[in-house]
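A reminder from the course coordinator: this example appears on the midterm review sheet, so study it carefully.

Given structure:
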């Protein structure tokens, strides 16, 4: 039996997922423009959740504008999730064909266009724009971590922390500013389209990187090499452990995106003002940084992560239970519990993809399976709970169902948190 894994071991395992080691020329090229590369990473990360988080506080106005039912309104947040899962499949192919930098730049341009498309008059444009937004975010989700690990092999942990923090901050600012921006522009369309500006700025910062990569330099050649995710190796579809990791990823994502879609609406339906509801939601999003920073560090020092899986599930269940019993009176406390639990669950899900793999190749394939299946599973959450809310004319049954998902997450986490690895010899 292997001994406890240290944080350094975890970081080493994550860095093994790099598509190919940067060559010496590429590293010299990188040092010539580190500020530009870091700015591109941070700006891209800021946009990876902002376009989704800013919709939630305005979902009521969007639904009223198009005269949508609760079930139909949930499609505004469900469709991006579906395409986040589908887009994860094509990301490696695009990187192999065009290069990672070009794929990232194209994703940011598409994200900008998708955000603008959402405010076009017909409702089909709103949903089509959501599909473009989801696909664009999927490309950023899949390609950005590999870029960080490739170009910052000695500072991968620090850059990953910077990248994760920027992503959560983008979501927080978007959620907190949605209602004030609506007041400034006088409509929800202005509040949504505002976030095309940061996406455009991020795309502009990536243009020089793309041009350098497309000149045929060795830096560009390294950039075009994707993570190998072939089918050789252990058959993941026959591995119970692989499915447990996938369902853990999907279940925690389902809870998170239900919160993104419906938390502000739950507060406003119980009498809270829109502005305060947006701030409470933003506060919950901000506190995700606490869980996403602490839980992976603890997981890397433990042979088994079962206790952590139960702990983050319990935190979210307590927060949801609070929304059921006293949604307005204890709103800030419930938001804090949900935020820390959701951040911890996400960090643990990503960490398990590394810890449950016997080698780097298996880890890359497990990551692809868990993220694709996980986002497709998560997409059902906002839609189903929206339909149940519409059918029952309240939030009691949807929240009870969500507590049931938390219980299932704990059970799946007990399996995914075992000290076993896919592709490792027996006894390791």
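Designed residues:
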């Amino acid at each position: 039996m292997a001994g406890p894994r240290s944080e350094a071991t975890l970081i080493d395992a994550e860095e093994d997922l790099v598509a190919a080691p940067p060559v010496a020329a590429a590293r010299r090229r990188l040092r010539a423009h580190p500020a530009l590369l870091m700015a591109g990473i941070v700006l891209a990360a800021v946009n990876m959740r902002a376009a989704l988080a800013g919709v939630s506080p305005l979902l009521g106005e969007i639904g009223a504008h198009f005269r949508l039912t609760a079930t139909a309104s949930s499609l505004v947040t469900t469709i991006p999730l579906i395409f986040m899962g589908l887009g994860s499949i094509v990301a490696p192919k695009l990187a192999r064909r065009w290069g990672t930098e070009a794929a990232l730049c194209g994703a940011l341009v598409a994200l900008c266009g998708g955000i603008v498309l959402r405010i076009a008059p017909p409702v089909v444009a709103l949903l089509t724009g959501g599909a473009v937004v989801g696909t664009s975010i999927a490309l950023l989700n899949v390609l950005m971590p590999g870029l960080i690990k490739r170009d910052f092999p000695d500072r991968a942990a620090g850059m990953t922390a910077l990248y994760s923090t920027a992503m959560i901050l983008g979501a927080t600012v978007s959620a907190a500013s949605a209602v004030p921006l609506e007041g400034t522009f006088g409509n929800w369309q202005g509040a949504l389209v505002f976030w095309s500006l940061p996406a455009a700025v991020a795309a502009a910062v990536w243009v020089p990187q793309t041009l350098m990569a497309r000149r045929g330099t060795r830096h560009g050649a390294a950039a075009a090499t994707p993570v190998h995710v072939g089918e050789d190796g252990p058959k993941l579809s026959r591995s119970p452990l692989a499915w447990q990791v996938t369902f853990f990823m999907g279940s925690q994502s389902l809870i998170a995106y239900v919160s993104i879609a419906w938390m502000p609406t739950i507060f406003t339906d119980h009498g809270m003002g829109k502005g305060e509801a947006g701030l409470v939601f933003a506060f919950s999003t901000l506190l995700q940084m606490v869980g996403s920073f602490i839980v992976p560090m603890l997981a890397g020092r433990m042979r088994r992560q079962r206790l952590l899986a139960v702990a983050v599930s319990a935190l979210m269940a307590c927060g949801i239970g609070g929304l059921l019993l006293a949604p307005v009176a204890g709103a800030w406390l419930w938001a804090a519990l949900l935020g820390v639990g959701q951040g911890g669950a996400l960090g643990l899900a990503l960490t398990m993809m590394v810890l449950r793999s016997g080698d780097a190749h298996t880890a890359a394939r497990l990551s692809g399976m868990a993220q694709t299946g996980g986002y497709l599973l998560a997409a059902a959450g906002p839609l189903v709970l929206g339909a149940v809310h519409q059918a029952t004319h309240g939030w009691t049954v949807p929240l009870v169902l969500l507590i049931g998902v938390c219980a299932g997450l704990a059970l799946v986490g007990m399996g995914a948190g075992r000290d076993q690895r896919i592709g490792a010899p027996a006894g390791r």
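The CA atoms of residues 112 and 362 lie 34 Å apart. Residues 236-428 form a domain with the Growth Hormone; Chain: A; fold (CATH 1.20.1250.20).
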